[in-house]
From TrEMBL, chain A:
Main location group: membrane
Protein name, UniProt field: sn-glycerol-3-phosphate transport system permease protein UgpA
Organism: Oceanibaculum pacificum
Mode of membrane association: Multi-pass membrane protein
One biological process term in Gene Ontology: transmembrane transport
Keywords, comma-separated and alphabetical: Cell inner membrane, Cell membrane, Membrane, Transmembrane, Transmembrane helix, Transport
Family affiliation: Belongs to the binding-protein-dependent transport system permease family.
Job description of the protein: Part of the ABC transporter complex UgpBAEC involved in sn-glycerol-3-phosphate (G3P) import. Probably responsible for the translocation of the substrate across the membrane.
Domain of life assignment: Bacteria
Pfam families (UniProt xref): BPD_transp_1
TrEMBL record, chain B:
Subunit record text: The complex is composed of two ATP-binding proteins (UgpC), two transmembrane proteins (UgpA and UgpE) and a solute-binding protein (UgpB).
Name this polypeptide is given: sn-glycerol-3-phosphate transport system permease protein UgpE
Protein encoded by which gene: ugpE
Signal peptide range in chain numbering: none
Role noted for this protein: Part of the ABC transporter complex UgpBAEC involved in sn-glycerol-3-phosphate (G3P) import. Probably responsible for the translocation of the substrate across the membrane.
Alphabetized NCBIfam families for the sequence: PRK10973.1
Originating species: Oceanibaculum pacificum
GO biological process: transmembrane transport
Length: 293, 279
């Protein structure tokens, strides 16, 4: 799509794009190429010299049990967060779409967690589940369940999944509700006249027509779970106990800034870039075409 | 309404209300914890009704620091500077570059477009270490510049404005040119006023984005004077040593207040911004 009428100046447009191009070059392109370059280098123990090693960093990475574990952790984490928050948001959105009175009030009361920073979400949940003072941890102990996410990896994972899903419900709810309200009422009325009950109408009409929204949210949620949950994990578990909640993004941070393994961290960055680019491509290709029944 | 099913409607309301309660529960507990004393928190269970120490806890958090952290008031100021700079900066550079790309034909136009597009694919999280090195080499650690400039370039905002400019009728430009308006005048007097709602919607989203940054300030601000509230709170929670929980919870409330208030009171703009930045 192009404008038919344009201005003829030559210099001005360059001046107008320059600020953005300079920032992009300095803080995006240069670091990204550095990451790419460093991923082919191995530094010696003192950081004095480095050697060009082609793909050795990547070979090391993919033969590293911890890294493969981290992939698994990320997969478990992302899938749980996505399923949990999409599921809850869909139920709430369907209900909010059904009721006639109060849809807007419900919406206001459900969307605010979007504005809470991931790290603050982490602090909130950490306080609830703190093994010695947390209220929920206390209730769990009273029922005889021993909650201690500081020692138990599975419980730590559950906690970060809940926290991450809690924050994302608001976003999903908003998009599901918009998707539901865009479905033509005539279709649903026609089905009702034909005698289809609410649950049948949902599964045969509403849910299929909602599939573009669902698919879009699926990609957005996976991206969220991959990249935007660093604050939650850092505040709640710091990747622990052991490595139980160390996702890929968290590992780039801890290997790069805590263990100072530059080559390995850069190689991980490159792998992450490949993942983001493929997710973006998937999003663009399929969002454009939409999922249709 | 398709058919009357009072039972089902009642159930819907019940599910919605329980959903709201689940969503609000952590917030409520945080609020309660910010109004009681340290002793009440250390002896669980926490009471379920707010205590009388609200003002005391919030003043302590806001104006008294400790050896590890500066007063929260200063952190909030840093956060505010960061959020405003990011929001205004992003909007400014995206507006001008989108204007250049839509309203001019110049060499390397598509190259510029794609260069900007690429930033969409490189979130800070995947290139932290090299970006950190660049900022360190430029001497921008512990400065507002280092906190904000690397986050200012944004493909999303540029796209949004490009899409919007494409919908502005060509006749407006023709008319402006007949009246003798140059590109800057047209930008200032026609494009900018037309973009007002879009700018406002984007501002809401970007302010929240800037306020909620965590990883970047965590790396860039080693000097506690420069801490932002969202990251500063993590320094207030000691793992082994003493944690002043009422103050931490008061800080958490203060950290949530500005962005949550914006979402609730500017709901229309917020939803518009959210939907449009995702297109």
């Amino acid at each position: 799509m192009e404008k038919r009428v344009v201005f003829r100046q030559r210099l001005l447009p360059f001046l107008l794009v320059t600020p953005q191009l300079i920032i992009t070059a300095i803080f995006f392109l240069w670091p990204a190429s550095q990451a790419l370059y460093q991923s082919f280098l191995i530094e010696d123990a003192f950081g004095l010299s480095s050697e060009f090693v082609w793909f050795e960093n990547f070979e090391n990475l993919f033969s590293d049990r911890l890294y493969l574990e981290s992939f698994k952790t990320t997969a478990v984490f992302s899938i749980s967060v996505t399923v949990l928050s999409l599921g809850m948001a869909l139920v709430l959105a369907v209900m909010a779409d059904r009721v006639i009175k109060g849809t807007n009030v419900y919406r206001t009361l459900l969307i605010w967690p979007y504005a809470v920073a991931p790290a603050i979400v982490g602090v909130l949940w950490l306080f609830l589940f703190n093994p010695s003072i947390g209220l929920v941890a206390f209730w769990l102990k009273q029922t005889g369940y021993n909650w201690n996410h500081v020692l138990n990896g599975g419980q730590a994972m559950t906690l970060v999944v809940f926290a991450a899903a809690w924050k994302q419900i608001s976003y999903n709810f908003l998009f599901f509700l918009a998707g539901l309200q865009a479905i033509p009422k005539s279709l649903i009325e026609a089905a009702a006249i034909d005698g289809a009950g609410p649950s049948r109408r949902f599964w045969t009409i509403i849910f299929p027509l909602l599939s573009p929204t669902t698919f879009f949210l699926l990609v957005v949620n996976i991206v969220y779970a991959f990249f935007d949950t660093f604050g939650i994990i850092h505040a709640v578990t710091k990747g622990g106990p052991g490595k139980a909640t160390e996702t890929l993004v968290y590992k780039v941070f801890s290997d790069g800034f805590v263990s100072l393994d530059l080559g390995g961290s850069a190689a991980q960055s490159v792998v992450l870039m490949v993942i983001v680019i493929s997710l973006t491509v998937v999003q663009f290709r399929y969002i454009e075409r939409r999922v249709h029944y | 309404m398709i058919e009357r099913r009072p039972g089902l409607t009642l159930l819907s309301h019940a599910i919605l209300i329980s959903g709201i309660l689940i969503v609000a529960f952590p917030l409520y507990i945080t609020f309660v914890a910010s109004t009681v004393t340290q002793n009440e928190i250390m002896r669980p269970p926490l009471p379920l009704i707010p205590g009388p120490h609200l003002i005391e806890n919030y003043t302590r958090a806001l104006f008294e620091g400790s050896s590890k952290v500066v007063p929260v008031g200063l952190m909030m100021f840093n956060s505010l500077v960061m959020a405003l700079t990011i929001a205004i900066g992003k909007i400014a550079i995206s507006l001008t570059s989108a204007y250049a790309i839509v309203y001019f034909r110049f060499p390397f136009r598509m190259l510029c477009f794609w260069t900007i597009f690429i930033t969409l694919m490189l979130p800070v999280e995947v290139r932290i270490l090299p970006t950190f090195e660049v900022v360190a080499d430029l001497g921008l650690l512990n400065s507002y510049g280092g906190l904000t400039i690397p986050l200012i370039a944004s493909a999303t905002a540029t796209f949004l404005f490009r899409q919007f400019f494409m919908t502005i009728p060509d006749e407006l430009l023709e008319a402006a040119r007949i009246d003798g308006a140059g590109p800057l005048r047209f930008f200032w007097d026609v494009v900018l006023p037309l973009s007002r709602t879009n700018i406002a919607a984007l501002f809401v989203i970007l302010f929240i984005y800037g306020w909620n940054q965590y990883l970047w300030p965590l790396l860039i601000t080693t000097d506690k004077e420069m801490n932002t509230i969202v990251m500063g709170i993590s320094h207030m929670i000691g793992i082994d040593d003493f944690t002043d929980w009422p103050a931490v919870m008061a800080t958490a409330m203060l950290a949530m207040l500005p962005p949550v208030a914006i979402v609730i009171f500017m709901q229309r703009l917020f939803i518009k911004g959210l939907v449009e930045t995702e297109k």
